Amino acid sequence: MVKVKKDADKTRAELIKELDALRDHNYRLKSVISRYERVLAGKGPEENHYDLETEKDSIESLRKDLGERLKEIDLKEEELAVQNEELRSRLEEINARSDEFARMNAALRESEEKFRALAESTNAGIVLFRGDRYIYVNPMVEKVLGYTKDELLSMNTWDIIHPDSRELVRRRGHERLQGLSVPSRYEVKVLTKDGKTIWAEFSAAVIDYQGRPTAIATIFDITERKRAEEERDRLFEYSRDILFIVGFDGRFKVVSPSVEKTLGWKNEEFLGKHFIDFTHPDDRALTIAMMKEHENGREAEFENRVLCRDGTYRWISWNAHPLVDEKMAIGVGRDVTERKRAEDELKAAKRQADLYVDLMGHDINNMHQIALGYLELARGTRPGAEQAALLDKAEEVLNRSAKLIGNVRKLQKLHEGAFQSRDIDVCKALADAQSEWGATPGKTITLDLHGHRTCIVRANELLYDVFTNLVNNAIKHIKDGKQIIISLDTTEEKGKPYCRVAVEDNGPGIPDAYKERVFNRMHQGTASDTGLGLYLVKSLVRSYGGRVWVEDRVPGDYAQGARFVVSLPAVNNKRDPSDQRDRGSSQA
After folding, report:
1. What span, in angstroms and rounded, lies between the C-alpha atoms of 277 and 512?
2. Residue 264: φ, ψ to 5°
3. N or C: which end of the chain has fewer CB within 10 A?
C-alpha cells in the first residue's frame, strides 16, 4: 500500500502528486477485486467458498485500505479546493495591484511630462542633481550659463560654482541633507561657459524623484539686480544728502555716512535713536505730525531744524516714502540751511522794499502835491508863454512820477494777492475809462463796442488800469491830428469764448524787433517812458488768465501804426456771429 504523508504544509504540487498516486492505487485495488470476481464466477460453490474463505482477509484488508484511501482522497481534494481558492484570491489581488501599478505609472509619466513642460517654459533655470552629477537641466539653464544640455549632464555640479561660493553651497547642502533648517534662497556667484562671473539666486530642496532622493534647484540670473544694488550702495556711501530708513516707531534703522558731513554725528550715533531726539523743540509738533502720515500710507515732506553734534542747528528738508507692510519709511534729508538763510534775507529785503514803496507812496506823493501847489501859484503870477510852457512840462513830469509810484504800489499788491477776483463787465470798464481820456487836444479817441452790450470776464478792479495804460501809451506816442480807436470783439480760442479788446493808433508804429520787448519792465522806447505801464498791463492780463500782444495796424507795415490786443477768458459769453476773425499776432 502507498503511504500518505500527514504534513498539512505540503505544497500544492506535492498534494496533486499524492492524489494521483492514490487514484492509481485505487485503480489497482478495483482491478484485483474485479479479477477475483471473474475467477469466482467460473467455480462451484465449494470452490468459491474455499477461495472466499482463503482470500477473505486479503479482500477485507483491501476494502479497508480502499476506504481509507478514499477518505484521504476526499481530504486532499478539500485541501486542493482551499488552495485553489487562495490561489484565485491571490491572482485577483495580483491583477488589482497590477492595475494600480499601471495607473501609478501612468500618473508618474503624466507628472513627469507636466514637470518637463513647466520646467522648459519657465523663466527660471531648473536643475535636478544627485551627488555631483546633473540628471536634468532645463533650457533656461543652458541660456544663462551658455552650456548645452549634454555638456552640463557630463559635468561635475561644482564646475559652474565660483570658488568664492563653493563653501557656502557645500555647507547649505550638507545641512539640508541633515534635516537642519537653512534658508531656502541664497545668492551665489556662478561661472558661465565664456568665463564670465554672474550672480544667481539659488533655491534648493530635496525631493523623491524616480524613487530616489534628488536635489532640485531653481536658478535666477540676478546680475543686473546686484549691479543696481551696488550702484545704490555707492550712492548711499557717497551721497551728500542724508539717506535713511526710519521705523514707524520713529527710530532710525539705517543712516548714510553723509550724516557726519552734514550734522557732525557719526553714523552709529544716529542708529536706534528717535527722530525727535535730534529735532529742535519748536519743530517737534510738526515733526511728530508728519511722521504719523507714514502710518496712514502717505508721503511726508517737511522742513525742520536738526541738532548738530556741536550744539548748533541746521535746517533739513525731509522727503520720506512709507513702506506700510514693513512698518518703516525710506527717505532723503537735504541740508537747506543756506536756502533758508537766503529766504530770510529775501524777506528782510522785501520788508525794506515795502518800506521804500510806502515811502514813495506817501512822503514823495506829498512832495508832489506840494510841488504841484507851487506850480499853481506860479501860474497865478501870469507868466509869459515861454514860462507857462515850462510850468506845463514840470507839471507833466510830476504827474508821470505820481503815476509811476501808483503803478509800483499796484504791482506790489498784485504780487501779494491783495486783489480778489470777481465778474467784471468789460463794456462797463471801457465806458468808465473813457471818461478819464476826455477830450484830448489834437487827438481823436473812438470807442467801438461793435454792438456788444456786455462781455463778462473774471478779473479785479485793476482791469480799468489795463485799458487806461494802453490808451495813455497811445496818446504819448502819436502826434496831433492822429486817431486812437478802442474796439471790443468776442472770439473763441481752443473752443472757449474770449473777450478781445484792441487799442490801435495811426502813429509811428513799433518795429518787429521791439514788439516783444515793449512789455518788459526795463524797456524804454523814449526818454519820457517810465517802463512800468505796459509791464503792469502784462502782469495784470496774465493774472486774469489772458494774454496781451502788439501787432501792426496794417499787417506787414509797422509804420502805419500799432494795435495792442488784450484777450481775456469770457464768462458765459456766446460769440456774436458778426465778430471779426482772429488776426495774426506777436504775443508778449
Report:
1. 63
2. 90, -15
3. N
Res. 108: pLDDT tops 70: no
Q: How far apart are CA 364 and CA 570, in angstroms?
A: 39
Residue 307 CA to residue 302 CA, distance in Å, equals 16
DSSP characters for 233-299? HHHHHH-SSEEEEEETTSBEEEE-THHHHHHS--HHHHTT-BGGGGB-GGGHHHHHHHHHHHHTT--
Q: How far apart are CA 476 and CA 492, in angstroms?
A: 32
Name the 3-class secondary structure at 126.
strand
Among residues 286, 275, 273, which one has the least CA distance to residue 333?
A: 275
- Asked whether the beta carbons of 305 and 314 are under 8 A apart, the reply is yes
CB 488 within 8 A of CB 499: yes
Q: Report CA 290 to chain centroid distance, whole Å.
A: 23
DSSP, collapsed to helix, strand or coil, labels residue 13 as helix
Cα angle value 548/549/555 (rounded, 5°): 145
Which residues on adjacent β-strands are paired with residue 301? 319
What CA–CA distance (Å, rounded) separates 211 from 232?
A: 47
Rounded to an integer, what distance in angstroms lies between the CA atom of residue 68 and that of residue 36? 21
Q: How many other β-carbons are positioned within 10 Å of the β-carbon of residue 407?
A: 20
Three cell numbers written together for 463: 482791469
Which tens digits make up the pLDDT trace of 353-362? 776 666 566 5
At what angle are helices 463-477 and 533-543 packed, to 10 degrees?
A: 150
pLDDT band at 53 (very low <50, low <70, confident <90, very high): low
DSSP 481-493: TEEEEEEEEEEEE
Mean per-residue pLDDT for 364-386? 72
* In contact, 421 and 569? CB cutoff 8 Å: no
pLDDT at residue 75 above 90?
no
Give the cell for residue 2: 502507498
CB atoms within 10 A of CB 35: 10
| C-alpha cell recorded at residue 363 | 512822503
Question: Which has the closest alpha carbon to 469: 407, 420, 523?
Answer: 407
Nearest to 449 by CA among 489, 484, 483: 489
How does DSSP classify residue 122? Answer: S
Percent of the chain with pLDDT over 90: 31
Taking every pair of Cα atoms in the chain, the longest distance, rounded to a whole number of angstroms, is: 212
User: pTM higher than 0.85, yes or no?
Assistant: no
Residue 578, pLDDT > 60, answer: no
End-to-end CA distance of the chain: 142
**Per-residue cell: 24:** 492509481
Q: Which residue has the cell 493808433?
A: 505
DSSP 344-381: HHHHHHHHHHHHHHHHIIIIIHHHHHHHHHHHHHHHTT
Provide the percentage of residues in the chain whose pLDDT is more than 70: 74
Taking 70 as the threshold, does the pLDDT of residue 38 lie above it? no
